[in-house]
Write a structure and sequence with these properties.
Length: about 170
């Protein structure tokens, strides 16, 4: 139950209790107990949905996104090495961009391992790394569009692999 609904529930409980013949003081007391119970349930639900509790689901989303990046990097390299497969290369880049955005919506798999005071900075560093990846993918897309297959292939083999390896070292569970 959201915190915005609790005052409304409180008002309904008081009105209902008064309508049933309880004094306003007793109705308010009963409603206050119900409100405390609702707030406690809300706090417990919020704790259950904390970052640590969501981590496996979020990590699964990130894992699938990373697998999509990996598969499409292979497709991209194949298309660029074969030459003359601009449409396939562009489709692979577009899919990689989509997967990068999916990964950005998640978070680093090792976030829960970090001390509480470092988690916000670590999550921002992860987001920054994904932003850098998206920039590299945009530059790669321009190279493919411009027919610069060798430059795009070099970027895919060098810069993207370097980014991947560094990010895995910093953001994956050890």
């Amino acid at each position: 139950m959201s915190n915005r609904k609790i005052p409304l529930l409180f008002a309904f409980l008081v009105a209902g209790a008064v309508a049933c013949g309880l004094t306003v003081a007793r109705a308010a007391s009963a409603a206050a107990e119900a409100r405390a119970c609702a707030e406690s349930a809300h706090d417990e639900a919020a704790a259950a949905l904390s970052a640590d509790a969501r981590a496996p689901e979020e990590n699964e989303v990130v894992h699938r996104a990373m697998e999509g990046l990996k598969g499409n990097l292979k497709k991209l390299r194949g298309a660029l090495e074969a030459g003359g497969k601009q449409a396939e290369a562009l489709a692979a880049v577009a899919s990689m961009q989509k997967h990068a955005l999916e990964a950005k919506a998640g978070g680093p798999s090792n976030l829960a391992e970090k001390p509480e005071a470092e988690r916000a900075a670590h999550a921002l560093a992860y987001r920054r790394e994904i932003a850098v990846l998206l920039g590299e993918l945009a530059a790669l897309e321009v190279e493919v569009i411009d027919g610069q297959d060798q430059a795009a292939l070099a970027r895919a083999k060098d810069r993207l692999i370097t980014l991947r390896d560094g990010a895995h070292e910093r953001f994956q569970k050890q």
